[in-house]
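Entry 14: structure prediction run for Ribosomal protein L14. Input pasted below.
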Amino acid sequence: MIGSGSRLEVSDNSGAKIAQCITQSGRSWGIGDTITVAIKKAAAKGKVVAGSVQKAVIVETRKELQRRDGSVVRFHKNACVLVNQKGQPIGTRVLGFATHELRSRGMLKILSLAARVL
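Run finished. Output tokens:
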């Protein structure tokens, strides 16, 4: 689960590399939740610059995700995809994994851009 202050890798080609969760709430977030992040590290050429505040959707977490059929999905990193205010991805490719749980949250554009869907 992702809490306030957690660092995430950005899994798209928007130019951002590392983001930090800054949403001020007492709860933790999981796959498919939209959070507010501060961009800590970004590429020199890209759509996003370091120090900016963006919205992001969590696509991978280290904490395991239990599915209804009993299977468990776990990743080796925490990762997110940057989105605009309407929930559409900023980048044109999703480089990491995406899970089927995004479909129930209405994140179909992220699923269509992802190379690997679990």
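Notes: The chain has one domain: 7-117. Will compare against the previous run tomorrow.
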